[in-house]
Specification:
Strand order of the largest sheet: 1-2-3-4-5-7-6
GO molecular function: acyltransferase activity, transferring groups other than amino-acyl groups
Protein name: Acetyltransferase
CATH topology: Aminopeptidase
Largest sheet: 7 strands, mixed
CATH class: Alpha Beta
Structural class: alpha+beta
Helix content: 25-40%
CATH architecture: 3-Layer(aba) Sandwich
Number of helices: 4
InterPro entries: Acyl_CoA_acyltransferase, Bact_Acetyltransf, GNAT_dom
Number of strands: 7
Pfam families: Acetyltransf_1
Domain N-acetyltransferase: 16-162
């Protein structure tokens, strides 16, 4: 069983299925923690439809899809913010695929993509309740920093020199 990571158009059927899984999980976690409910399916569909994902298209962005034994299992976005800085966005591995080494493979592929864009550092933000993500970033050498944006849901900010 092996992992592969390849670029994928952000509006492909594979990407759409992964966006839906990603948003369902992070949204449900948020609403269950703060409001004691799951995400309204109509709200989820509106959120997905509202994004064009243009920032994840070349020449300044990419959506990467991780596959485990050929099956789509996760995704990550890379967006070049300026000549030296890329942002890692929406890293996701299906829950059933976690613990099989896909997270590090996916993040390292995103770092390679950022380097290919000319970036010398990667930044990201995440929420407090996404503990698995924060642990992954720390294991891969990301250091927590002061905020670099004012995103409503951002609670932790990280950076790593590439």
């Amino acid at each position: 069983m092996t992992w592969t990571v390849t670029p994928e158009p952000p509006n492909s059927p594979v990407a759409a299925a992964l966006w839906r899984a990603y948003y369902t999980e992070v949204s449900d976690r948020y609403y269950l923690l703060h409001e004691g409910r799951r995400t309204d399916p109509d709200e989820l569909e509106r959120e997905i439809a509202a994004h064009t994902w243009d920032e994840l298209r070349p020449p300044k962005g990419a959506l990467l899809v991780a596959r485990y034994s050929g099956e789509p299992a996760g995704s990550a976005g890379v967006h070049l913010l300026d000549a030296e800085t890329a942002e890692l966005k929406r890293v996701f591995i299906h829950e059933s695929m976690r613990g099989k080494g896909g997270g590090p493979v996916l993040v390292r592929a995103a770092e390679d993509t950022a380097r290919a864009f000319g970036a010398t550092r990667m930044i990201l933000d995440t929420r407090h309740d996404l503990t698995e993500a924060r642990a992954l970033y720390a294991r891969l050498g990301y250091e927590e920093t002061a905020p670099h944006n004012n995103d409503t849901y951002a609670e932790h900010w990280f950076t790593k020199p590439l």
